[in-house]
Amino acid sequence: MNPNWRSFLEAAEGNFDSASSDLLNFGDAAGELQAATTQTIITPLTHLGLIEVNGDDAKTFLHSQFTSDINHLAEGKAQHSGWCTAKGRLQASFLAWRKGDSYQLALAADLQEATQKRLQMFVLRAKVKLTALTDSTVLLGVAGPQAAEALADAGLPCPAEAMTTAQEADNTVIRLDASRFVIVAPQEAMANLWQKLTVKARPAGVPVWRWLDVEAAYPLVTLATKEEFVPQMADFEKIGGVSFQKGCYPGQEIVARTQYLGKVKRHLFRLRSAHALKAGDPLFSPDNPDQSCGTVMTVAPAPSGGFAALAVVQSNFADNVHLESREGPQVEAVAVNP
Length: 338
Known about the structure:
Elements (H helix, E strand, L loop, with lengths): L2 H9 L3 E2 L6 E3 L3 H10 L2 E4 L3 E7 L3 H8 L12 E7 L5 E10 L2 E7 H13 L7 E4 L4 E7 L3 H7 L10 E5 L2 E5 L4 E7 H11 L4 E2 L2 H11 L35 H10 L4 E8 L8 E3 L9 E8 L5 E8 L6 E3 L6 E6 L3
Parallel strand pairs: 3-13
Antiparallel strand pairs: 1-2, 3-9, 4-7, 4-8, 5-6, 6-7, 9-12, 10-11, 11-12, 14-17, 14-19, 15-16, 15-18, 16-17, 18-19
């Protein structure tokens, strides 16, 4: 994170996690979470990193590596995408969009450096340049009933449809769904944008945005869940993150075989838990004595109390899921796509 941006947020009463550098809250974690249920909030997305890919072969390179159809990612559009191992397991997931002739990839911050280095290994002689933008560019999330008005007041465009983008000078706005937007802007522009956006949007920490991710069933791969899931286990194909019409990419044969043979037994579920849990925690069922029946993917405090999470769970054991062991606390699991 850019130290100037962090100092600005700390001056605005932002509190950071010393281990992860996530922005936890602005002094009222519970109030911020409640506000997200009915009001408009703004969150510095410090849990995300950003990579720019450009060069004459950028499109061809990304298309050959990622699970989505990068060849048809047009200007003004955004895609969910993934990068798999040779065994078809997601080692990173992205929100991808075009900015002029370059491609920008938002991913979990704790995977950004390693992902960029590993992608670089496959560039070989291709005319492709990968650049980390995490320190020079800032991502903000705005969500709620007045989100579009807040954007307009800040002089920012409002994309009309989900998974579309709009540009204003060096600023990009991505519409995720009906009421959620991501703003991507140079660090030096953010202080001014923040002052304008917070007239209508209440500042909130990353846990609030993670709760919105759980509500939206957005499966973000992080370091804790790297190489845990075939894309279909996280229902990744249901949000447009996998193309079954494109050519080869790492793990493509396994992903395609899994799809066409219908052998996916694990899917994305929302969890409700009275007990604390974290990404990567294993789930068990007394009905399945041999092995874990799932893995927690994203966790957030819930406005109603306790915790909300996304998890990949073996469907036939979802009625009886326990945290960390078969004797652990029971959690409620509800299928995202029943």
